[in-house]
Amino acid sequence: MPGAQRKNMIQFESKPPPLDSVHSCSKKVIPIRVLILRDYQSLSERAAHVVAETVRANPWAVLGLATGSTPLGLYRELVRMAQEGRVDFSRVTTFNLDEYYPIKKENPQSYYYYMRQNFWEPAGIAPGSYHIPNGDPADVAAECRRYERKIKDAGGIDLQILGIGVNGHIGFNEPAEKLQAETHLVQLSEDTIIANSRFFEKAEDVPRHALTMGMGTIMKARRILLLASGESKAEAIRDTVKGSVTTMVPASLLQLHPRVTVMVDREAAKYLLG
Ligand code: GLP
Predict the structure, then answer these.
(1) Atom 1, ligand 1: residue with shortest CA distance
(2) Is 269 part of any domain?
(3) Is residue 12 part of a domain?
(4) For residue 222, what are the domain limits?
(5) Total count of domains within the chain
């Protein structure tokens, strides 16, 4: 790979952090484009810029959306832009990655509730244009098939937003010897239950299962933007970007995708430099 091209693999949006070792980074072949941002706010603004540009270029864009604490800043920025009339989400279609199981959508801990509150409604997504797996279906397998079909019928996902779990999961595709391609029911790992218990009163309240898009569903997105903030994600980001492609770090499969951008703040980039 020519040097100039390699240098572009890691780019700084702002002044590089003091431990700047971009030179040693540029010697490594890192196939995923990584943008290192100064802090969480810059990360959120930069991600919002990418989403807004996608929607301006194609007002009917199909967006894949994520939950968790990481995309909250992105949603806040997008809502602000929508309310200021700088971007119009009224014609987009959205598909969320995952939902707990079992959970009713009225439950404030559901991802449905989170999305309605933080993005769909304030951003002006048309009712009927946002989709998320039903966390309380009569027939789980039928719900998974229905969700997969809906995505296909919408023409697939143009831009998929991802967060990442501390163990390298994306959506709720947990590390395992085998990963599933399509939307499916998954048992959450102990790491994930512990990490997500901060959103619940008690760890016992965290659902033990979820419905999630599969790795194939995610990999079919035409463009992928993975966001990570904070030191707790640094190892997962290192393994995703620089590690072997392995089902034990589901996000590492993104190395096989032709159009992925990883946006991280300095803390999450800790092990990428040097
Ligand atoms: C959950 C979600 C993931 C998300 C992850 C990280 O497990 N299913 O989609 O990426 O949490 O969450 P956070 O951004 O809060 O660290």
Answers:
(1) 68
(2) yes
(3) no
(4) 31-273
(5) 1
pTM for the full predicted model: 0.91
Q: Is 87:79 a contact under the CB 8 Å cutoff?
A: no
Which pLDDT tens digits describe the chain residue by residue (274 residues)? Answer: 444 444 446 666 554 333 333 333 333 445 689 999 999 999 999 999 999 999 999 999 999 999 999 999 999 999 999 999 999 999 999 999 999 999 999 999 999 999 999 999 999 999 999 999 999 999 999 999 999 999 999 999 999 999 999 999 999 999 999 999 999 999 998 888 988 888 888 888 899 999 999 999 999 999 999 999 999 999 999 999 999 999 999 999 999 999 999 999 999 999 997 6
Q: Is residue 102 part of a domain?
A: yes
Q: Which of 43, 70, 118 to mutate to test the pocket of ligand 1 (most atoms within 8 A of CB)?
A: 70
- Compute φ and ψ for 17, nearest 5 degrees: -65, 160
Contacting residues for 85 by C-beta, under 8 A, at least 6 apart: none
**Within-domain flag for 132:** yes
CATH number reported for the structural domain that contains residue 73 in this entry = 3.40.50.1360
Which amino acid residue places its CA nearest to atom 11 of ligand 1? 68
CA distances from 226 to 65, 66, 163, 197, 229 (A): 11, 10, 6, 22, 10
Distance from the alpha carbon of residue 147 to the mean position of ligand 1, in angstroms: 20
Distance from the alpha carbon of residue 153 to the mean position of ligand 1, in angstroms: 27
Distance 163 CA to ligand 1 centre (A): 6
Phi and psi torsions of 218, nearest 5°: -70, -45
